[in-house]
């Protein structure tokens, strides 16, 4: 039973050792432990503040990136619109030039055709007149081969002259 009930001397010595240990710990160990805890708390708080600042900065950067992306898309759309409009203008100009060129070629062809047509008609008239003269000459030679037919023709011309 002595184990269960300690003696008063032991309790006093334990109390003295506890107070002495408490005093030594408070003087020697308590301040460094507390300062290291404060330093650690400060470093944790700094890390939290830095993380919060980084989070805010990331949110700001994301917003800036979103704005830049939006502006880039708008600029791209504008450039594509401008390029389409320029391409359409170029195509329209090329079509206009091609149409003018085709119209000029057609007009030149028509003029050349008309010139060739007139030349062909003139040539045909000349040939027809030559054929007519040849036929008339042959007919005259045949009909006027003898003197009697020549006299009859001269009399017919004279009669014709007197009537007119």
UniProtKB/TrEMBL annotation:
Keywords assigned by UniProt, alphabetized = ATP synthesis, Cell membrane, CF(0), Coiled coil, Hydrogen ion transport, Ion transport, Membrane, Transmembrane, Transmembrane helix, Transport
Q: Where are the transmembrane segments?
A: 12-30
According to the UniProt entry, the coiled-coil residues are 34-89
The membrane topology noted for this protein in its Swiss-Prot or TrEMBL record is:
Single-pass membrane protein
List the InterPro entries: ATP_synth_B-like_membr_sf, ATP_synth_b/b'su_bac/chlpt, ATP_synth_F0_bsu_bac, ATP_synthase_B_chain
Instruction: Just give the chief location class.
Output: membrane
Q: Look up the domain of life of the source.
A: Bacteria
What Pfam families is this protein classified in? ATP-synt_B (PF00430)
Is the keyword Ion transport assigned to this protein? yes
Q: Tell me where it resides.
A: Cell membrane; Endomembrane system
Q: Note whether Repeat occurs among the keywords.
A: no
| Stated family | Belongs to the ATPase B chain family.
> What PANTHER family is this protein classified in?
ATP SYNTHASE SUBUNIT B (PTHR33445:SF1), ATP SYNTHASE SUBUNIT B', CHLOROPLASTIC (PTHR33445)
Give the quaternary structure: F-type ATPases have 2 components, F(1) - the catalytic core - and F(0) - the membrane proton channel. F(1) has five subunits: alpha(3), beta(3), gamma(1), delta(1), epsilon(1). F(0) has four main subunits: a(1), b(2) and c(10-14). The alpha and beta chains form an alternating ring which encloses part of the gamma chain. F(1) is attached to F(0) by a central stalk formed by the gamma and epsilon chains, while a peripheral stalk is formed by the delta and b chains. F-type ATPases have 2 components, F(1) - the catalytic core - and F(0) - the membrane proton channel. F(1) has five subunits: alpha(3), beta(3), gamma(1), delta(1), epsilon(1). F(0) has three main subunits: a(1), b(2) and c(10-14). The alpha and beta chains form an alternating ring which encloses part of the gamma chain. F(1) is attached to F(0) by a central stalk formed by the gamma and epsilon chains, while a peripheral stalk is formed by the delta and b chains.
Its biological purpose: F(1)F(0) ATP synthase produces ATP from ADP in the presence of a proton or sodium gradient. F-type ATPases consist of two structural domains, F(1) containing the extramembraneous catalytic core and F(0) containing the membrane proton channel, linked together by a central stalk and a peripheral stalk. During catalysis, ATP synthesis in the catalytic domain of F(1) is coupled via a rotary mechanism of the central stalk subunits to proton translocation.
What name goes with this protein?
Answer: ATP synthase subunit b
State the organism of origin. Answer: Chryseolinea lacunae
